[in-house]
């Protein structure tokens, strides 16, 4: 390359870097919903979102929901993939952007599981036993069991001999498989995906009970995000299945695509939240 071409190329790269530096940043909150090979998946998702929105994307990863929810409410996180439970708790503050479609529907279930050799056949058989929950703000991993027990005028601390939070759905499955808990509450989507990618783990557990269907954990924007920015992010999310990087992320997550969704999808979760108080 001659000197003039080198200088021109360097100038173009510098201009591109300056444009990127001046681009707005989308702070995207995620938790341990991701199952495996997180860095590769997030790299692909970042590349797709940056190309589709023209903004820089910074993933904010936390092990539990509460700092993600607090960040959304405080304006420190712009967009996040959360659970339906915190969504209904803060529905007036959060804007619904998208809901994943899994097996053709924007729905999933809570699974109550036990060890593969357990004699338990229902939740009632776990009275006085040890039980693993995923997160205090999880619908499938906590709220649903609270609701079931509330209908029987029971409290978690009185019903189970011991209970604890494992801080992710895969950790709940592992705790039950290893015998650290005799039962657990887990996201059915996560259990089913784990059954595909880590069958040796899920085969050491057994599903005792499946909940009714609930709205799949949604992607939301905080109240501080301007309408135009929300629209760009939403358009990018809804078009993921049309681009190679987007399709790769969806394939790794075993999701079909993202749909606009409707708040009414989460009405049954809101009703459970009102019941348990």
What would your notes on this structure say?
The chain is of the alpha/beta class. The protein has two domains: 3-106 and 215-269, Periplasmic binding protein-like II (D-Maltodextrin-Binding Protein, domain 2, 3-Layer(aba) Sandwich), CATH 3.40.190; 110-211, Periplasmic binding protein-like II (D-Maltodextrin-Binding Protein, domain 2). It has twelve helices and 13 strands. The protein has helices at residues 3-22, 38-53, 65-74, 84-89, 139-151, 156-159, 169-177, 188-197, 199-202, 227-238, 244-253, 267-276, and strands at residues 25-30, 56-61, 79-81, 95-101, 107-108, 110-115, 130-133, 162-165, 183-187, 205-210, 214-215, 219-221, 257-259. A six-stranded mixed beta sheet has the order 2-1-3-12-4-13, sandwiched between helices. A five-stranded mixed beta sheet has the order 8-7-9-6-10.
Low-pLDDT segments? 6-20
What top-tier CATH class of the largest domain fits best? Alpha Beta
Oligomer state of the chains in this structure: single chain
CATH-scheme architecture of the largest domain: 3-Layer(aba) Sandwich
H and E order: HEHEHEHEEEEHHEHEHHEEEHHEH
E-strand count = 13
- Rg to the nearest angstrom? 21 Å
Q: What is the element layout, followed by pairings?
A:
Blueprint: H1 3-22, E1 25-30, H2 38-53, E2 56-61, H3 65-74, E3 79-81, H4 84-89, E4 95-101, E5 107-108, E6 110-115, E7 130-133, H5 139-151, H6 156-159, E8 162-165, H7 169-177, E9 183-187, H8 188-197, H9 199-202, E10 205-210, E11 214-215, E12 219-221, H10 227-238, H11 244-253, E13 257-259, H12 267-276
